[in-house]
Amino acid sequence: MHMCFLKQHWVLVVINRVSQQLFYFDSLKNGNPNKYPIMKEIYTRVLNIYKAHKNICHRSSLPVTWTHVKVLTLLISSNNYMYS
After folding, report:
1. What's the pTM?
2. Which positions fall inside the Ubiquitin-like protease family profile domain (predicted)?
């Protein structure tokens, strides 16, 4: 059986500006946003700049929360598909 693995790493961050939640999608099975402290700092600053620009004060006490979302990967072989 010939397997074709297209190994490219990607990360997607979805921002819910109302609840101050950041949803972290990572193509690596054990991806963890804590591995990327600079990325977390940048997105936290982005939310703070947004709040300052929009004069949003009532939500300022909410902490920014990160949620790691599991990503389903698709492995393509010559005749069938396998999910991991």
Report:
1. 0.63
2. 3-44
Comparing 33-37, 38-42, 62-66, 80-84, the range with the smallest average pLDDT is: 80-84
Nearest-5° angle of CA 63, CA 31, CA 13?
Answer: 50
Contact call for residues 60 and 70 (beta carbons, < 8 A): no
**Beta pairing partners, 33:** none
As a whole number of angstroms, the distance between CA 54 and CA 37 comes to: 26
Q: Residue 83 in 3-state DSSP?
A: strand
**Counts of helices then strands in the chain (DSSP H, E):** 1, 6
Q: Cβ contacts of residue 32 below 8 Å, gap of 6+?
A: 26, 68
